[in-house]
Amino acid sequence: MRIKRNTILTLAVAVVLVGLLYWLSFNQAKNGMLVSILQKSAIFALVAVSMNLLNGFTGLFSLGQAGFMSIGAYTTAILLIPVKNLDGVYYMNGVSPFIRAVKVYLATLPDWFQAIYPFIALLLGALLAAIVAALVGIAVLRLKSDYLAIATLGMSEIIRAICSSPQMDKITNGSYGLNKIPNFPPLLGGLIPAMLTPFIVVAICITFIMLLIRSSYGRAFKAIREDEIAAEAMGISLVKHKAMSFVISSFFAALAGGLLAMYMRSIEAKTFSISLTYDILLIVVIGGIGSVSGSVLSAFLVTASKEWWLRFFDQPLNILGWQVPLFRTGFRMIIFSVLLMVVVLVYRRGLMGSNEFSWDRLLGRFKRKKLSEGGVK
Amino acid sequence: MSDILLKTEHLTMQFGGVVAVDDLNIEIPKGKIIALIGPNGAGKTTAFNVITGGYQATNGAVHFDGQIIGENTPNKKMRKIYGGTDQTVFHRRVVNTPDKITRLGMARTFQNIRLFKDLTVFENVLIAKHCHIKAGMLRSTFRLNHLEEHTMRQDSDALLDTVGLGAYRDAKASSLPYGKQRRLEIARALATHPKLLLLDEPAAGMNPKETDELALFIQSIKDSFELTIFLIEHHMNLVMDISDKIYVLDYGKTIAVGTPKEVQNNPAVIRAYLGVDEE
User: Fold this and answer.
1) Residues of A in contact with B132 (CB under 8 A)
2) CA B242, CA B235: separation in Å to the nearest integer?
3) Which residue from B117, B143, B192 is facing A235, i.e. has the nearest CB?
4) What is the ipTM of this complex?
5) pLDDT (tens digit, 9 = 90+) per residue, A74-127?
6) Yes or no: is domain B1-105+194-279 CATH 3.40.1360.10?
7) Domain that holds residue A54
8) Chain A CB within 8 Å of residue B256 CB
9) pLDDT of the residue at A377
C-alpha cells in the first residue's frame, strides 16, 4: 500500500520534472538563465555523486576530481572542435597533423556516425581518465586519509600543468585553452532537443552509480569505509575494490568534465584548478557525505544560490533614495559563505546525512508522530 | 597428515629487536577446538595476525588445508638482528593478504570488536558473503546476478536465525548489546564459509553467565557448521571446558602444550600466570 503510494508519487514528480524540462526546451529563449543554471547544476551533480562514491561510500578522501574532469573536458573538446575551426582555435602554434588527419577522416563518415560522435567523444574522454586513474591508483591508493588527499590533489595539479604546458601546445593549445567547442548534441536523431541532453546523460550516469552502490560491490565499498581491517578479514580485497571505486569515480568525473566543456563552449587549464575540486567537495559536504540524493539536491541548491538567487546582493540597492551599503559586486559570495556556515551548523552531517531521499521520511516531517510511536505532544 | 587443518612451522615474528612470537609450532586437527592462552603481551594476538596474513612472519611457514599460505625467512637487515631461537632455514617467500586467506577458508574475529558499526546487522552478514561472489561488477550492478544476490540474502537471513540474531536483523550493529555484538562478529565470520574459525578473546568483558552461554554457542556452531576452532582466551573456565588441546605462550615462547588437565598442573604455566615464588 505504502510502496504503491511512493511509486505513484515518484512517477508523478518525474512526469512533472520531465514536462517542465520539455516546456523549458521550447521556451529556451525567455528562460536562458534558468536553463543554463539547471544544466550546470546537473553536470555538477554528476561530479558530486562521483566524488561521493569515492569519499562517502568507499571512505577514500580524494581531491583529484578536477584533474579527471580536465582529462574528460580536454579529450572531448579536442575530438569535437570542427575541422573548419581548427586553425582559428590553434591560431598560435598550429594543430598536430595527426589530430587534423583523424578529424578530417572522421568528418567524412556518414550522418549516423556524426549523430553519435559527441557521445563517443565523451566516452573516450571518460575511458582515458579511467586508465589514468588505474595507473595513478596503483601508486596512491595504499595511502590513508589525509595523505591520499594530498597525493590526489598533487596529481590533479600535475594533470592541469601538463594540459597547459608549452609542450602540449599542438594538442591542448597550452595556456590559450580551447574554444569553439560545439554545444550539446540532440539525442535520438533530434527526437530529444539538445537542451535536454545533459540531463539525460547525467540521469543515466547517476542511476548507474546508485545501482552500483546498492549492489554487492557497493556494500563491499561501504565495508571498507566502515573498517578496512575488518573488511579485509571478511575476504574483501582492498586493492581491487579501492581501485574499482577510484576508476569508476574518475570515469564519471571525466564524463561530467566532457559535458562541462560542451556547456562552457570554451575551456582552459585554469578552469580545472583546485578551487573546482573544492566547489565539488562543498556540494558533497552540504548534501551529506554518503548520500547520492543529498549530492544531487545540494548541487542544484548550491549552484542556483551562487549563480542566481544571490545575484540580488551584487546590485546596488536604493531604498527611498538611500543607497544600502555593502550591496555591490562580490557581496553575494559573503552572504553565500554565511549561509554555508549556517547550513553546516544546523545540519551537522549535511542536508541528508547519509540517508537517501524517501517519501516516508519527507511525509513524516509534515505528519505529527503518533504518541504510541514515541512522538511528542 | 591430511587431518591436520592448520600447521605452523617454527613461526617467528620479530618487530625490530623484539621477538613477539618465537618458534611457534602448532598443529590443529580437523574438528577440534584448540586454545592459545598466556599472560598479557605473550604474543597470542600477534600469532593470530601472522596466521591470518595481517603480518608477514619473520621466519617460518604456515600450512593451511594442504597448502602453504605463508612462508618467509630473515633477509637483509633482519638477518643481522634476527633474534629467534630457531635457525631452520626456509627458502621460499610466500605472502598472502588477509582477504585471500579468508577466501581460502579461514575466518577470524577481533579482540576489540570490529563490526561495520553504521550498517545493519543484516548488512554486516551480507557483506561477508561478498567474498565468494561470482558475478563481476557490471553484472552485479545491472542485477544480472539476481539469483546469486537472492541466495546471498536468503543465506544471510538463515544464518542470523541460526545464531539467534534474527530479531535484530534491521538494527544498527552498534546498537546491539555487547554480548550480541560478539555473537554478530562470529556470525559474520561464519558467513564467509570458513573451515577454520579463529576467535580472539570471544569472552572478553563477559560475565560468567554470558561466558557459559558462549561456551555452548561455540560448541553448537562447531557441530552445525563442521568447523575447527582456534581460540585465544583469558577466561580459564571457558578454555578448560571446551578445548581439546591448549598451547600456552609466555614472552613469545611456547611453554606448555597439552590437554586442559595437563596444562592446569604444569608448573611452568602456574609460574607464568602467578609469578615466581621467591623464597
Assistant:
1) 235
2) 11
3) B192
4) 0.90
5) 999 999 888 888 787 888 787 788 888 888 888 888 888 888 888 999 999 999
6) no
7) 32-272
8) no
9) 46
